[in-house]
Amino acid sequence: MALRRELGTTGVQPAGSVGVAPPVNPNLAPRSELAEARRIRGNTVETILFRALSTPTALLFVIVQSRLLAPEGRGEFVVVVLGATIVSRLLGQLGVAVTSRLHASDIPVTGLARRALLLGAALTAVGAPAMVGITAASGQVPTKLALIGALGILPNVAWQTISGILLGLGRIRLWNVIQLLSPVLALLGLLVLVAALDTGVTGALVAWALANALTAVFALAAARGLWWPPGLPDILDNAGRTILRLSLVMGAVQVVNLVSYRAELFVLGRESGNFAVGVYSIALQAVESMWLVPAAIATAVTAPVVAARTDRDAAALVARSSARAFGLAVLIAGAVAAASPFLIPAVFGHQFKGAVVPLELLLPGVVLYAPVNVLVVYFSVRRAEPWWSLAVAVVSMLVTVGAAVLLIPSHGARGAAAGSTIGYAAGTALAWTFFGMLRNRAAATKLAAKPA
Known about the structure:
The longest helix is centred in the last third of the chain and has 63 residues, at 387-449. Helix 2 runs antiparallel to helix 10 and helix 12 (311-348) packs across helix 14 (372-382). The chain has one domain. The protein has 15 helices and no strands. It is an all-alpha fold. The protein has helices spanning 2-10, 31-91, 94-101, 109-137, 143-150, 153-168, 172-196, 200-222, 238-272, 274-288, 292-307, 311-348, 356-369, 372-382, 387-449.
């Protein structure tokens, strides 16, 4: 197929005679496996280096914003951006859906990419107004702020779509540049519009939306080979419907995950107000930044997992990478637990000191959930069966919401953190159960295919 020939030029698929002859020393891995391991390590290190720039930048954005807006303004910003992000996550998996079809479709990647971008524009025309209406109806923020936040949805969907396709093609460096660009531009906009011009929450939201717009322009220009020349394919043909179906399920996973990560914020806001949300969001931001390394591992293994010759080989790679993600998360959590009592008051200000205990209660759940970042690559991308990931996300969300409703009224932010950790643990247990089941199925299928 044309697509397979194109993938061969990107280095995503194994070259010609890989695996035909056994290694001279039976105790050594085949050269293809060693090369793949080196490539994964290199991509992981490169992604971590880029994240080492983007994560502190995003954290600096939160610090500056918290100082400039205070907890009340920070709470308003969180409410608006959360609504916009939910819509963006739902619609932003079109590129990942394309990636999941790279090994199975006869349509060139440019045709798939055009379908994904057009679908994103069409769906945003429905999703953005819905976000404005729901956010404004909540009564927590003015309609004007919701409208500004909605402006960032379409460009966010566009650059996320391009990013998802780049990931499947193994173009990690450009993917990393795009991920770095958004927080850098958001921080610059915040410094100009809020720190210099004193435009408050409105300026902070404009900075966020403008950062997404400029990132989308860069992504579309830098990866123009994926969609140029522009065309108007039938977005509801068989390929378009498949991309749409997969992307909406994958998007639902992202939305449910996001709601699960933030479910306690809604309960906490109703019980204690935006001030409590602003303080607790610092704890969330800090612990979720620990997923930098697991997310980098997931990024690095995506293309090799897609290109693996069998599901069994893909599952073995995912299992090794998940174990590595867990081990590194444990080490990072220890450092965060030791430093947070001193760093949070010093960096964010004494009024955010209340985030320290919730942060430490969140750490066990974040560590347990770290490997799930990698496991979903097997569920959603390799097997193109995102409903497994969706089931994990739904269970985690339901458990989190249930625990939050029980614990927050009497324990406040500490109850929110404990409820979140319980939800993470439940989701992790289910993810490993599904992975074990599918891995055994893949092994049994390979065994049954062997000649008697």
